[in-house]
Amino acid sequence: MLFNSISFLVFFALVVPVFFLLRGKARLLFLLAGSLFFYCCAEPKYLVLIGFSTLFSYFAARSISSVKEERKKRRIMVLNVCVALIVLFFFKYFNFFNDSLRSVFTYFHLHYPVPDLFNLVFPIGISFYTFETISYVIDVFTGVREAEKDLAVYATYIAFFPKLLAGPIEQSTNLLPQLNTETKFDQDRIIYGLTRMLWGFFKKVVIADRLALIINPVFDSPSSYHPLTILVGCYATAMQVYCDFSGYSDIAIGASKVLGYDIVENFDQPFLSRSVGEFWRRWHMSLSFWLRDYLFNPIVYSRRKWGKYALIISTFITFILCGLWHGPRWSFVVFGLLQGLAICLELMLQPRRKKWAARFPPFFYNTLSMFITFHFTVFSFIFFRAKDLHSSLNVVYGLFHSGQPAGSVGSELSGLGILTIVISLMMILYMFVVEKRLSPTFNKLRYFRQSIVFGAITLSLLLVFGYFDPQTFIYFQF
Amino acid sequence: MKEEIFSQLTQVYRDVFSQPDLQIERQMTAKDIRGWDSMSHLTLIVTVEKVFGIRLSGSEVMRLKNVGDLADIIERKKQ
Amino acid sequence: MKRLLLYLGTLLTVFIAVSFIATNLLEYGLKLQRKDSFGTLNHLTANSEAHDVIFLGSSLAKNNLDPAVFDSITGFNSYNFGFYAAKIDQNRMILERYLSSSHPAPKMVVLVLEENAVDTLYIKFPPQYYPYREDSIIYNYVAGYDKGIWVLHYAPFLGITQYNDYVKKLGIEGLFSSMKNVNNHKGFDPLTGIHKMTTTRFSDKNIRISEKGYSEMERICVLCRDQNIKLVFLVPPYYYTRKGAVHSGFADQLAALRDKYAIIIMDHTTWPQHVQKSLFYDKAHLNENGARLYTIAFSDSIRALK
Lengths: 478, 79, 306
Fold this sequence. Notes:
The structure holds 3 protein chains of 3 kinds.
Chain A: H1 6-21, H2 24-42, H3 47-66, H4 70-107, H5 126-142, H6 151-159, H7 161-164, H8 175-179, H9 187-220, H10 227-259, H11 276-282, H12 285-302, H13 308-325, H14 330-359, H15 362-385, H16 389-400, H17 408-412, H18 416-437, H19 444-465
Helix pairs in contact in A: 1-2, 2-6, 3-4, 3-5, 3-6, 4-5, 9-10, 9-18, 9-19, 10-15, 10-16, 12-13, 13-14, 14-15, 15-16
Chain B: H1 2-16, H2 38-52, H3 58-63, H4 67-78
Chain C: H1 2-32, H2 36-46, E1 53-57, H3 59-62, H4 67-74, E2 78-82, H5 88-100, E3 108-112, H6 115-119, H7 136-143, H8 148-154, H9 165-176, H10 211-226, E4 230-235, H11 248-261, E5 264-267, H12 288-305
Parallel strand pairs in C: 1-2, 1-3, 3-4, 4-5
Helix pairs in contact in C: 1-9, 4-12, 5-10
């Protein structure tokens, strides 16, 4: 069930009233059943997989908290993490590594016997809930939280439908405790949630899907476009990916708010970052914080006597895996490598950057930093968006080699294309105006009036400029 | 003892984040202090270990949520 | 609770109002459109002009038969009611709709046949019929396949969410540019470009078409017989295709209909020019030049009937 589908709207409109009519355990079980139904609509046969992950991590955490010996606790934790990673690896990366190994073997004219598993359909959401189970078990191991006693609560935490298919990745300390208490019906929170959802739909249906129309042809055959057209396509890509995924997160966060739960924020105007490091604290925050807490920091602290080198090694490992997390493709590895390189460079230049910052006027320095960071991001997104490494390199090549006469840019982006760009730019401007004001203020009445006006304008724009051919969210493939 | 640790810790924070007039409070988190990212966090932990002569394990570091947690663990280790 | 209800009420009102206005504007524009399937449907539902000969069929009618050329040779007044991806029941619906108007019935109906348009029935793009949902014949045909038209019938303001960009473009064009002087070629849509493929051959299995498709063909035969209309089954030329006319099983079925309803079957699969690459757009569609040459040949064979 896609968020941007009529069936989701119907599902949601049915779930919310029933949810608030029920009380106590019945409500929780209803939420769990609804979430599982939601997952079934996407991928019924992998319900088994999510069930397995949930049960396995639940019992692992229970036994960690019941055994006394530190060594045994560690053993259970490691076992659970390994199994979770093996499952993830098998379903998501097996064919990829198999293919890569095979091409190495064929390169040396060797026979490679392992066949691909052709029928492996990608279990949607696996990258997200696997990370959640891992973080939960590690948290119980390190003592950040107690093991959850109630299986229903824990299963609801993993399967909670707003965040099930594409995050945000919840760490155990936020949503899980909330599920133990009953949420109250609060009309202002529901209004906020609904406005937030509407806002997400707007970003997806109006901006992202419209931009996709001009991006897809450029990325499909960059050699037949002028470098300027490709450049426009690259800027559009950054905006598209942002609007697509942050729009998804807005819908997820909004839907949770309606039900009375606060799930973590995922974006904080990332394109205004002044460094790549900052970018990752504002872009897909739930993933970067997860990677920081369960991958980067453990490596850094176990190797801290190496000083700066611990940071550098850890950064590279983290970002290569961060790239691979997005999908089994070499272009994602390159994407991760680029991010790692940039962050290491920032780390090396840190003392010098402080000096520069002191020398120039702050406005100039900040704007320049923002400009450089943004352009680096746009460049790295070429590897993020293209369907494989080869075609992303083609796009990069096309940026610098004119295959078409200079006058062709206008006609390449003609008619609908230019209209699309103009509409999208207007919408992006509107977006930056609204996004800041969306969060509730202390004055309930004033906030209520604002929500009505924003809601009405957004809804109207959505209807008039929306792109109504169903398109899936980019982050569903991860 | 408690206050002594806290004022020493304040000095560490001021040095690490090069903000000479930084005032820290127990409930402060990474969000509240400019420049407190994963990189400077390492410097902070290493400096704390050096200054107070203690050793923190990986999972102890992971459990830290704010300045207060850090002060508490230093106090516990010093005893 | 009051604020929430007010919020929901306002948004619902805005939704209905904006959608209603946008849908109506768009559909108004679509009804002024003279090109594409909307142009043809507008001509059909206007009931304004009687034709001596009408062409029915899929793109094989729409791209291959030029009424202007046909009229200049035969002296008839013809119209091309071909639709992209139309199936046999759509052809029947169009004929039924045409005959339901008060003007005199045509003298002749030419049904352009292709096997897969008779065999499997569906509607490729239902929203092209949505603006005409008030027309009972069109409505009943579409409602058999698509729930969307049913929804729009009861909630007409939802239209804007059903139309894609292509339809919106046509609607806006209809609204803002003067459509009066647009030459719509009487439903004919000339293609430009030359076939790039090599020889294609169809398999020659003994294919019979489905019961449903066959009964739709029979309904067309009955409609024509009842109104004394001459019915011609036309199989258009294919580029360098198999030597036989149609698959033998289908040919038997056609022969049965011919014997029962006195239909004329014209098999032009191997029109002498069908080996000329320069006349084809792809393996089954003629380009503008090819369509003109073929319509001349076709007109001659119609004239020979008289």
